[in-house]
Amino acid sequence: MMRAMKSYLRFLAPLMLLGACAPALAQMYQVQPLPLQWYLDVGPSFTTGTTSNFLQNGWTIGTGFTVRPDPSGPFAIRTDFQYSRFNATNQLLTEGAEANQTQIDGGNGQVFSADVDGVLQFPVTPGMRLYVMAGGGIAHRNVQLTQNVVSGGLPCGGWFSFCGPYTAGESVVASDSQTHLTWNAGAGLDFPLPGGQSWFVEARYEEIETAQPTQFIPIRVGLRF
To answer: How far is the C-alpha of 100 from the C-alpha of 113, rounded, in Å?
Structure first.
């Protein structure tokens, strides 16, 4: 747990630095958030803890909406839906090959999640708001190991100077799908735009309650509208 929180703070530091510089790069909009906002976000996702032994850093994309019971107040309720994807590490490929007694050429992990978070927002300057959030939900994690399927061959002579087999696709050798509760906590910076819209950058620690917790830290950049 301490290792995960240290990783989270390490990724949060550049976010705070960006927030400190952003007001100098953008105009100051003194606008009130809309009571209901949809958003889209995308960014890198960094595995941490024991998860980093089996899955490499990857990426995430998502959408959702934020409801503010009082648009002028600091509290909001946020619902989001995220998809994250990671490639398998060499360690996982090696262990998979040994366990299945067959060649393993690749693998990946995918996470589909739905969360509900409470959000507290604090104005820092007219052009920047800081927010913290925490909550939980449910996530489906699917990890699969694949093997290249080889069939046919390239003809010799003519236009081709090389003859040999070619890869037709991939075959799933082993897979593991699990659905569990998940929780998260994070912080972000929100930068208002005219008309009540805004763009934001945030970092969030996420943990899926699998037998060995699945832990990762997505850093997302998005637009609220």
So the answer is: 29
Q: What is the 3-state secondary structure (H, E, C) of 103-144?
A: CCCEEEEEEEEEEEEEEEEEEEECCEEEEEEEEEEEEEEEEE
How far apart, in whole angstroms, are the C-alpha atoms of residue 17 and residue 110? 30
| Mean pLDDT estimate for the chain | 85
Spatial CA neighbour of 193 closest among 224, 158, 153: 224
pLDDT in tens, 82-118: 999 999 999 999 998 898 898 999 999 999 999 999 9
* Phi, psi torsion values for 13, nearest 5 degrees: -60, -50
What average pLDDT does range 28-56 have in this prediction?
88
| pTM, two decimal places | 0.80
Whose CA is closest to 216, among 207, 202, 39, 193?
207
- 168-172 long-range Cβ contacts below 8 angstroms, 24+ apart: 170/105, 170/106, 170/146, 171/146, 171/147, 172/144, 172/145, 172/146
What secondary structure does DSSP assign to 14-34, as a single string? Answer: HHHHHHHHHHHHS-----PPP
Cα–Cα distance, 61 to 150 (Å, whole number): 33
**Which residue segments constitute the domains of the chain, with CATH numbers given?**
2-23+36-98+112-136+180-224 (2.40.160)
Q: What gap in Å lies between CA 83 and CA 59, rounded to an integer?
A: 9
What band does 29 get if pLDDT is binned at 50, 70 and 90? very low
Token pair in block for residue 132: 């913290």
pLDDT of residue 1: 54
In three-state secondary structure terms, 211 is coil
Is the pLDDT at 70 greater than 80? The verdict is yes
